[in-house]
Amino acid sequence: MKTKQYSTKTWNEHPLHPKVVDKNTVDWIFLIDLLNFSFWSDLDVADRSTPHPDRYAINYGGKKYTGYWSLCAVVNRALDNQIPITSPAFYGNKATDEEFADIFKSDTKEAAPMLNERIRVMREAGKVLSEKFNGSFVNCILQAKHSASRLLDIIVDNFPSFNDVHDFHGRKVYILKRAQILIADLWACFDGQGYGQFDDIDSITMFADYRVPQALYQLGLLSYSPVLIDKLKNRENFPSGCEDEVEIRGNSIWAVELVRQRISQLEPTLTINAILIDFYVWDMAKEIQDQMTVPTHCTRSCFY
After folding, report:
1. Residue 63: which H helix or E strand, with range?
2. Integer Cα distance of 292 and 304 in angstroms
């Protein structure tokens, strides 16, 4: 991270991320993180850097995008075609199922994963924004008054699809992947200024999905039992909230926190938090995808 000079500015270097920062950018980020879940493919079992040719993908700007980047490509393509996809009024009420199906239409044989669920959460969130926040997530940010933890509460209390909380042996486990990455993306995109200014940004943890835990295992920061490894290699389904799934995600959060603490000890002058470590590990996971020795866990959920 030190060699690559990893910082908030790295976020904007991705070609599909916004280069202009204003209220419209907030709408873009909110929609992206509203839909930032379940990009793994049923067809692409190998899950290597060269995807299965039939895997869900979007052609945009002369390049084929899969995974998270296919979502960014879908949204940018719609905006290029003058479709107001980032408008809460549009996706919350005006757009029909047929229009959504056309917007998310694949350029390969595999259809968009969980499209009906994506439509449901868009309509749900669009209605909340229209009825409670004058039609824009900007007003949620303003209510939070530069507090990441306060904004986190606003998101979880008002938008049910972000309520990534689970029971684990009688205790509540607050993972909150999408709610936290929404705040982190705002912070990174706006470089900690304006709509991205959060005085307590370091209270945000890493974003426990399926790709970062895989990379943490590869780095030796997580260890799995032989039984769990067999389940992963057999691509068993891990229901959202099951014990194995919560353990993988919860331990990933703690592993990144331990890394953060150690980096702070070794490099006390280096500005670091769990967000930047997560961003770095996620990017690195894509770079070393062909070297992974265990698959990601398979969970279909709107939470990640």
Report:
1. strand 63-65
2. 20
Tens-level pLDDT at each residue, the chain (304 residues) = 888 888 899 999 999 999 999 999 999 999 999 999 999 999 999 999 999 999 999 999 999 999 999 999 999 999 999 999 999 999 999 999 999 999 999 999 999 999 999 999 999 999 999 999 999 999 999 999 999 999 999 999 999 999 999 999 999 999 999 999 999 999 999 999 999 999 999 999 999 999 999 999 999 999 999 999 999 999 999 999 999 999 999 999 999 999 999 999 999 998 899 999 999 999 999 999 999 999 999 999 999 9
For residues 249, 253, 254, 258, the Cα torsion angle rounded to the nearest 10 degrees is 140
Catalytic: which of 27, 44, 47, 209?
209
Contact at 8 Å (CB) between 140 and 134?
no
- The tokens for 294 are 């265990």
Rounded Cα gap, residues 276 and 1, in angstroms: 9
For 156, residues 6+ apart whose C-beta sits below 8 A from its C-beta are 162, 163, 165, 176, 179
Count CB atoms within 10 A of the CB of residue 170. Answer: 5
- List, in sequence order, every residue forming a beta bridge with 60; answer none if it has no partner: 63
Q: Is 22 a catalytic residue?
A: no
For residue 76, the one-letter residue type is N
Put simply, whether the predicted model's pTM sits higher than 0.85 gets the answer: yes
- What backbone phi and psi angles, to 5 degrees, belong to 213? -55, -40
* Contact (Cβ atoms closer than 8 angstroms) between residue 102 and residue 58: no
Residue 289, Cβ neighbours under 10 Å: how many? 18
Q: How far is residue 51's CA from residue 56's CA, in Å, rounded to a whole number?
A: 9
